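The records we work with from here on pair a chain with its fold. A complete example follows; check for yourself that the lines match position by position.
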Amino acid sequence: MTDVTRSVFRTEEPLAVGFVLLHRFTLLPFAAFVDCLRLAADEGDRSRQVRCHWTFMTSAGESVLSSSGAAISPCERFRDPAEFDYLVVVGGVQQEGDPRDTAALAYLRQVAAAGVPLVGLCTGVFALIQAGLMKGRRCCVSWYHHRDMVQRFPDIQPVADRLFVDDGDRLTCAGGAAAADLAAYLVERHLGKAWAMKSLNIMLLDEMRAGTHPQPQPVVFGKIEDRLVRRAIAVLEQHLGEAIPMEVLAERVGTSRRHLERRFRATLGVGPQKFARDLRLRYGLWLLHYTGKSITEIGERCGFADTAHFSRHFRSTFGVSPSEMRKSADSPGSAPVDPFFLHIHDA
C-alpha cells in the first residue's frame, strides 16, 4: 500500500493540512476550505484542532496579504512535508509579469517528491503548473481563468466544467465556494460523512456537491483574436443578469456603438446585441438543466423584463418553450447540455 493510499483511508488519526499562501491569495476559497476543517475538528464550534490540524505557511514565515487586503498572521516557514496529509496552495491575482515565488515553487516540488498529495485552490493551480507538477494531469480551473491559462500554458489541458478534480495525488479546485465542497470531500474521506456534513450545515450549506457538479457560471469558451471584442464579451459575461444597452457597452470598452457592431460582425458574424441576448438565453438554458429555479426566477436572473419576454425569445432560439425544455432535460437518457455558451474555433 502506498503512502498516498494510507493517507486517503486513515481515520484513526487527525487530518493534517498545510497551507502555502501566495501573495494576494484569494480569500474566499482559503476561508471556505479552512473553515470546513475547523468545524470538523471539534465538537460544537470551539475550534480546537482535535480531529483536524492546519498550518499556514509562507516562504519566510511572514504575514501575507490576500487579494482583498486582509492579512493572515502569524504564518510559519515551510515545514517538513511529512507532517501533512495534504499540502494546499492558494493562488493569488494573476497578472502578467508578476514575479514568481521561487521558494514556494521549490517547496511544492519537495512536497511532491515526498509523496504528499498537493491541492491547488483557485489560481493555486497556476503555481503547480509553474513548479512543473501538472504534466499529464487533469487540471481544474475556474471558467473565469480558463482563457488566461490556455494563453499562458498552451501545453496544459484545463477542465472548466466542474468544481474540482481528484487526480490521486493532485487535486485542483475552481475556487470560490467550491473549496468548501473539496474540503468536505477530504473530511468525509478521512473522518466520515457525519463530520463533513456537520461542517457544511454550520456553514449554512445544504449539501456537499460532487467534484463533477458543473460550475455555476457558463462562459464563452474559445479563442477570440480581436481584443476589443474580447473586452466586450468579458463585460457581458460578468453582467448576465442585465440587458446592457449597446451604447453603454461601447463606452465601457472605449469605442463607438457603430464601430463595436462592425467588429462583432467581422469576428463572430452577429451584432453585439444579438450576441448578448444569446448569452443570456444560454445561461437560462443552463439554469433550466442544472437548478430547480422556477422559469420566472430564471427569466429575471437572465435579465429579461418578464416571463413572457423570456419565453418568447427562448422558443425563438431553441424551438421549444422553457417548460418543454425542462421536461426533456428531466427525461431518462436525455443528452447533457454543454455547460458553456459557445465554442469559438480558430478560422
